[in-house]
Amino acid sequence: MSDTRDITIDEYDYPLPDERIARYPLTERDSCKLLVRTSDGELIDKTFIDLPDLLPAGSMLVYNNTRVINARLKFRKNGDGALIEIFCLEPHRPVDYAQSFACTENCQWLCFVGNAKKWKQGSLEMSLKIGDKEILLSATKGEAVGNARIVSFEWTGGVSFSEIISVAGEIPIPPYLNRETESSDASDYQTVFSQINGSVAAPTAGLHFTDRVLAAIDERGIRRRQITLHVGAGTFQPVKADAIGEHEMHSEFISVSRSLIEQLAAEPTPYVIAVGTTSVRTLESLYHIGCLISCGRWSGEVPQWYPYEADHPGLSVGESMSHILRWLDSNGIDKLVASTRIIIAPGYKYHIVKGMITNFHQPRSTLLLLVSAFMGDEWRRVYSHALSGDYRFLSYGDACLFL
After folding, report:
1. What is the pLDDT of residues 310-354, one digit of tens each?
2. Three-state SS for 113?
3. pTM score > 0.85 for this model?
4. Which of 1, 129, 194, 332 reaches 20 to 30 Å from 21, CA-CA?
């Protein structure tokens, strides 16, 4: 593990001109460029609508069905009228996402607070109208948790918190877009298969999919399966430490159905292509959950550095999935709900993921480390090809298929 911890983030830097960052998506999602790196290292320039014919026969496509919430709430403080921004990160009480969204009177969330110095005491209030109901929403600042705060929300009218934020909040687009959220982002920044509320950032590799691409994938007999990982604000957190061993990964909620775990346990192991780094992190975390269960160490979260530990049991995928299935049976549940802090960096051995669809990532980011762990220093040739080939970068940019 020491070799991985000692990696310096300077090794994963590259020049990204500002004009190569896509500020808006293309009108036709599936008309973006697709850079394919084949299993023998060949680079091919395609268009995303070509994807179905590029997927290996018999493969399984796994994508993230999370839905981005209107996590950014803007309050005006009484008195001086200062703008206070509350950015909802994850539920605190109740801690379950579905239960928190269903609350009809109050709940607590862990939040970032913008302009916090102006909010010394008292509650912030906002008047809303939902249907024919006049709603008063209040926010009260609680204790600090790291660089975030617990915020208590209370409201009138008997509506759900899900309804509250859908009306009161706005979609939190990435900070590197350097612009305000616009009405078009409400649809542009959601995938066509988004279902489960909870993310504060989109699984952006999924933004390129359209109904016609999905239909073509089905026609080819490629299996499509869903997982859930609620993306946290930490996805935008740069690696500030020189060595990645000093970087602390954020915790993210994951949910995987029993049926998918059963399919992953089959022999031979399916050729899994993950849509986006969130699906990669979920699937690879799943393998390590089985390993943690096997040695009696499972506590509900995959630790950041567990995959690199010398005493890791190193089970086969089938063995790992079997441990999870027995654990589900013993607890009488049919869905694995957990959290993960896993960091995937050079030195990591992939277990479940054989291919990935992803975007072009920021320099010096953990997402670039994940890509490098998959293909080694080849990422430099891939990114150099993209930069010289007029590809668009980051969330609203073009796509890659790595096999």
Report:
1. 999 999 999 999 999 999 999 999 999 999 999 999 999 999 999
2. strand
3. yes
4. 194
